[in-house]
Amino acid sequence: MTRKFTIAVGSDHAGPLLKAELMVFLESEGHAVLDLGCPVGTERVDYPLIAKAAVEKVASGEASFGILVCGTGIGMAMVANKTPGIRAANCHTEFSARMARAHNDCNVLALGARVLGPSLALAIAKAFLETGFEGGRHAERLALFS
User: Number of folded domains in the chain?
Assistant: First the structure.
């Protein structure tokens, strides 16, 4: 049985449709979802503001994980990684999502709405959430981050 988490999700103007699909999927899997924006139909949103709002929920412990969506996932990951305690990965495959969790204990997943189809994005999110951190030598390496 998969653990259930509280997940902070957010997108910029490139990703609200994918974010909406992700939220439905996450809730159907039994996870609680915190929607940090942006709504469908928003003209332009500054992604750093959305990313900061979501990762603050993760950094404070209010959410276990964050999932951020922009056009490529790159900008969201860059902003997220500026917050202490956040380890964000921009993933394009299920394998990269599993490795981000297993080897890097990532707590934020960044996805690109303009580079991923919805079914692949959902599979990546599922792989990310179902994979645990392996610890051991990987924990030793994480300690070198600071």
Answer: 1
